[in-house]
């Protein structure tokens, strides 16, 4: 039988060491934990975001063809650790614009653009009623697959074509509606607006209606 | 002349070895760690663990070398890798070794685990060594995952995005894990810094003691060779008995001679 202690510790010593250990732990643990976990504290507790909340221009509605979706690459400005604009300005060592790049697919719902779009040229402005119509007809989809976030692409093998994810074969139709494969939901769409200059603008957030069973507002995140 | 030099060097080396042994006990220690009877049959199977150890050592060595040029910032990471690959002497070789031994490491670990599993090497009293091995496996997986992003090319970048999004599915903790790995809520400078810190310090520092425990437990119980071990032990026992018998016999003879001489 293995014996743990040949010379047993006294109750006083035990409590003393315990107390010392607790004090040391209280000093060391929370400080280092807060140091490492500061991004979690900032985003999840304080609700701050690294990404700019400004609207970013995607593209003009006349660029979106009738039969297929069109992809646009957009960049949201971010501030993170040494990339913080304040720090860069104060130190004066660098002046880099850090961004996070997303790809957006624009498409017309069920391949049916509003009738006036055909006559539009890039840069043409549109009226308030036309904005309303575009807003109800356009899909502003994230290219990030709703399964694990691989970039989806538009593939035409037969019929009208589909969004296909290269990683695990998730398939969506032109509206981003789930058709087949492992994704648990439809493609994510961005919070967007259409302005009178005819451009689509998005924010770095997904337009998710909360409270739908089986659909998480959190997974996987916009990155 | 040659004979004298030879005897002198033997004496000198003997002196050094004795000196070290007296002060550090290193010779006995090496004996413990290096001289291990292994079953004769299937001996190649028992080299898989050493192969893993060798590959991890390569990772440590080449990793230290790569750190001399690698820069963990989003603007310079890729350029520094480019410098290593194209400008630094033997850079391609050293990064190549780091890359390929990382790949082979996963494969060799798989083979090593399969060998232990199919030979029943995880059975009592070696269960804890299996558990330590699983911890080592997870640490290596973590190292592979974090190392991939450091190149900061399209391949590693998007693979890491997918990996982080897989983490977001963790029950209850998803959001926290994602934000911890990202160092915020978007992939950027913080993410690279974090992955760098985890890859070059946290996980290597964590893996080293576990390798030590793994080897200690291995030497404590010896390698397990299912039925080979049994026959080996039996033959060792017989050998020991035979030697004891001989020594008994020799002792008797000596005593007999001594006694005989007394009588004369």
The chain pair forming the largest interface, with residue counts per chain, is: A-B, 30 and 28 residues
Tally of extended strands of chain B? 0
| CATH architecture verdict of the largest domain in chain A | 3-layer Sandwich
Mean pLDDT across all amino acids of chain B = 87
Protein model, in words:
The complex is a heterodimer of chains A (223) and B (264). With 223 residues, chain A is an alpha+beta fold. Chain A folds into 2 domains: 35 residues, no CATH class; 151 residues, Rieske [2Fe-2S] iron-sulphur domain (Rieske Iron-sulfur Protein, 3-layer Sandwich), CATH 2.102.10. Chain A is built from 4 helices and 10 strands. Chain A is elongated, with a radius of gyration of 26 Å. Chain A starts with 10 loop residues before the first helix and ends in a 17-residue tail after the last strand. With 264 residues, chain B is an all-alpha fold. In chain B, helix 6 crosses helix 7. Chain B has 10 helices and no strands. Chain B has a domain of 40 residues. The chains are: A alpha+beta (223), B mainly alpha (264). Chains A and B meet through helix 2 of A and helix 7, helix 8 and helix 9 of B.
Highlighted features:
heterodimer; A: 223 residues; alpha+beta; Rieske Iron-sulfur Protein; 2 domains; 10 strands; 23% helix; B: 264 residues; mainly alpha
Secondary structure topology:
The complex is a heterodimer of chains A (223) and B (264).
Chain A: H1 11-36, H2 38-45, E1 56-60, E2 70-77, H3 85-91, E3 99-108, H4 128-137, E4 138-142, E5 153-155, E6 162-164, E7 171-172, E8 178-180, E9 190-194, E10 199-206
Antiparallel strand pairs in A: 1-10, 2-3, 3-4, 5-6, 6-7, 7-8, 9-10
Chain B: H1 2-24, H2 26-34, H3 48-66, H4 77-86, H5 91-118, H6 127-150, H7 154-167, H8 174-182, H9 189-221, H10 226-263
Helix pairs in contact in B: 3-5, 4-5, 5-6, 6-7, 6-9
